[in-house]
Structures are given as C-alpha cells and as structure tokens.
Amino acid sequence: MDETFDYGQVPGYFVHCFNGGCRRAGECLRQLAARHVEATRPTIEVVSPAVWPADGAACAWFKPIRRVRMAWGVRDAIGRLPYNEGRLVVRALNQMYPKVTLNRISTHERPLPPAEQRRIEALFARYGVTGGQVFDRVEMGYEW
Asked: Domain of 28?
C-alpha cells in the first residue's frame, strides 16, 4: 500500500501520528499519513506524545487502514436522463446537500463515500438508472 499512497488525498483535518514505537504502526492510517507528509503542507494535526499509550495498551487514536470504493460526480448520469427527470434528481440532490457541497461533488473536488453512494444510487434507481451508470468515476480510496 505504501508505494501507491497519494498524500494529496489526505484531508487537511486528518490527525497524524509519529509514534514509531507503536506495535500497530504498520496497520494504522494515521501512521501511514505521517510517513508520507509532503513539504506542500507546512502544518499538520498530530497526536500528542503525552497521550501515546504505554506499551501493550490500546490506543484511542488508532485508525485502521481501510480502502473503500469512492465515487466522484453524477453529472453524466443526470445528463442521460430525460430533462424533467433530470430536474427532479437535481432538486432531490439540492435537498440532500448544501449548495457548496453539491458544487464540490459536481466538480469532482469531493468524493462520495459508500454511505452517500447508496443514497444517491437509490435516488437514481427511482428513475431507472442502476449499477455502475450513476457516478462519473469510481476508484478505491482510504476511509479517513
């Protein structure tokens, strides 16, 4: 996993961990992010060494490395719908998301995690769009 890790995908709010002595460092997303910090981000959030657990203790900050399916955008699927149905889908999306968030989804600046994908797939299914036809792009990403 290390070789393909793209630090550009790490959210600005994500907490990193530099506890090199942790027995679970190899399976912790916070450690993975910390190993790949880039100079483009001059400041980051970190777990304070004062709260690192004693050897063998469970860490409250541990976050397992989990890759999940992330989807990007729904413009193509909306464009394939008849005009009136497309308007209804857009109206429903406007009710699901604030305007700024929906714009970020539309311009592929914000991915859709699995729970949101299910909601959007259910919305499109009402109009006959099913399967992999809903999202503009789908790829594997980390569950931050």
From this structure: 2-51
* Continuous H helices in the chain: 29-35, 75-80, 83-96, 99-106, 114-125
pLDDT score of 142: 92
Q: Assess whether 71 and 135 both reside in one domain.
A: yes
DSSP letters spanning 33-53: HHHT--TT----EE--GGGPP
**56 is written with which tokens?**
């063998």
Is residue 47 situated within a structural domain? yes
DSSP structure class, residue 112:
B
pLDDT confidence of residue 112: 94
Per the listing, tokens 């399967």 go with: 131
Query: How far is 21 from 47, CA to CA, in rounded Å?
Result: 14
Q: Give the helix/strand (H/E) hosting 142.
A: strand 137-142
Chain center to CA of 51: 27
User: What is the Cα–Cα distance from 142 to 29, expressed in whole angstroms?
Assistant: 8
Number of domains in the chain: 2
d(CA 58, CA 65): 16
Three-class SS state of 89: helix
Query: With a cut of 50, which residues of the chain have pLDDT below it?
Result: 1
